Each structure stands twice: as structure tokens, then as C-alpha cells.
Please model this.
Amino acid sequence: MVIDRQRTTVLEFNQFVEREENADKLFELIGGEIVEVPSNPFASEIGYNIGFPIKLFLRENNIAGHVTGEAGGFVVAGERYAPDVAYISAKRQPELAPEGYNPNPPELAVEVDYPSTLASQRKLRTKIASYLAAGTLLWVIYPETKEVEVYAPGQSMHLFGIDDLLDGGDVLPGFKLPVKDIFQ
Model:
């Protein structure tokens, strides 16, 4: 059955998120739909287990860049996303936007799909296409199966298991992260 969904424009989305009653909430614009970003301590910790090693790698290697958590929003292929972890180099953008959604997409985005549902999978499919269209390297984390899907523009998806090693590819050359460390 096809459901006719009302599509929201970026202008309508911006007006919606600026309402006083939405001041303490985080929203994404996915495929023209406004979606409140769910948050839970478990998924947040998973994100931290990825964001912290990235930030440490940047410091130890004297690389200028920005790492954001789940409250950092980005414009990605015309939509508005709040990845659980994101990285953008200082070369691409010296300073992040002080408010709202950062105008440039991240170079690396991490989405933690927990709990994974049919609805979350539908939204993820849209987000994956948008991230790839924007040139973003994407890691999708599945805590329930302890797996990571890696999507890089122009390449096929790669699935990593608990005994595998993620790397930063062309975005963060030299960065390595054991998948088991994500789920410690």
C-alpha cells in the first residue's frame, strides 16, 4: 500500500525547528519528512566509543579538524541530518557553524542504528544515498549484531564484524579502530 506523505520543504523545516516548543529537541529532515532524533544512553555510548578515538587520533597526529556528537547537525545533499558522530577537516571548514545545521556535510559520518527497526532501516536507506551523493564516508553501526556497514562514494558496501579493523580511508589516513572496541 502506498501512503501519500506530505513533503516538508527546507524552509518549513527551519521554521518548525525554530519554534519555542522545539528548542530542546533535535530533528532531521529525511526524504522530506521531519523526524525527531531519538536518543538513548546506550547508542550515545556507542557513538562516544567511536568519536573519542577519532578526536584522540587528530590530537596525536596534529590534524586540525572537528568531531561532533549526536547534537551536531549537518546539511547533507539538501537535507538536515544529525549523525551520532561526524568529522570534518579544518581544511574543508575552519570553524563549525555556531548554531543550526552546519552548511557543509561531514567527511565521515557515523549512524548508530539502535534499536534497529523497519522504520529506522527505511530512513537509513535514504540517508545512505544522501551521504554518498555528498561525498561522505559513512559507517552504520548495528549494536544488536555487532556489525558495521561501511559506505564510501563510488564503492560497494563493506560489512565488518567484531574481529575486523575499521580504517579512516582517504578521509582519515592512518586511523584504525578495532570493531570490538566500539562494543566494549
The chain has a mean pLDDT of 94. The radius of gyration is 16 Å. DSSP finds four helices and 13 strands in the chain. The longest strand covers residues 172-178.
